[in-house]
């Protein structure tokens, strides 16, 4: 297995183990960060949100985002992800993102106020002190 494939496997393991992370957007040259719940398909990340939120407004102006996932008391592995965000209204993707927590705010996957942010990584930095002295970078 190549180093690239091993690194990809490490990253996917962090994504599997950590659903809650930080999504940062930019507004007027200032960063804004908020906790979000993520799910993934390979290296592609998704997070549910409302159509009329500040993060959606920010993404409509600047689609470049930063995501931080991982690192807790049990495991020091984490990833920093540079990604491009897309606002998704497709029913299939909305169904995948549907959960009991989302149901507290929206009437169902067909609710027009409910959208999904699709986050396509361009650079992922993986850090684990036990394995590497410096972060390992995966460019996509």
Describe the structure.
The structure is a single chain. The chain is built from 4 helices and 8 strands. The chain has 140 residues and is of the alpha+beta class. It is 24% helix and 44% strand. It is globular. A hairpin with a 2-residue loop joins β3 and β4. The mean pLDDT is 93.
Defining traits:
alpha+beta, eight-stranded antiparallel beta sheet, 140 residues, globular
Looking at how many chains there are and whether they match, the oligomeric state comes to: single chain
Count of β-strands: 8
Tell the overall outline. globular
| N to C succession of SSEs | HEEEEHEEHHEE
Strand content: 35-45%
Q: Evaluate the radius of gyration.
A: 15 Å
Structural class by sheet pairing and helices: alpha+beta
Distance between the termini: 18 Å
Mean pLDDT: 93
Number of helices: 4
Q: State the helicity in percent bands.
A: 10-25%
Largest sheet: 8 strands, antiparallel
Low-confidence parts: none
Set out the fold topology.
Blueprint: H1 3-17, E1 20-27, E2 30-37, E3 39-41, E4 44-50, H2 54-61, E5 64-70, E6 78-88, H3 91-97, H4 100-103, E7 114-127, E8 136-139
Antiparallel strand pairs: 1-2, 1-5, 3-4, 4-7, 5-6, 6-7, 7-8
What is the gist of this entry?
With 140 residues, this protein is of the alpha+beta class. The protein has helices at 3-17, 54-61, 91-97, 100-103, and strands spanning 20-27, 30-37, 39-41, 44-50, 64-70, 78-88, 114-127, 136-139.
């Amino acid at each position: 297995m190549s180093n690239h494939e091993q690194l990809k496997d490490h990253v996917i393991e962090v994504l599997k183990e950590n659903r809650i992370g930080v999504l940062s957007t930019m507004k007027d040259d200032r960063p804004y960060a908020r906790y979000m719940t993520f799910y993934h398909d390979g290296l592609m990340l998704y997070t549910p949100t409302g159509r009329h939120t500040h993060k959606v407004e920010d993404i409509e102006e600047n689609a470049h985002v930063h995501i931080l996932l991982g690192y807790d008391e049990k495991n020091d592995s984490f990833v920093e992800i540079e990604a491009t965000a897309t606002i998704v209204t497709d029913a299939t993707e909305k169904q995948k993102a549907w959960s009991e927590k989302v149901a507290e705010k929206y009437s169902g996957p067909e609710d027009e106020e409910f959208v999904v942010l699709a986050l396509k990584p361009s650079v992922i930095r993986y850090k684990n002190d036990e394995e590497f002295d410096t972060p390992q970078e995966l460019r996509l």
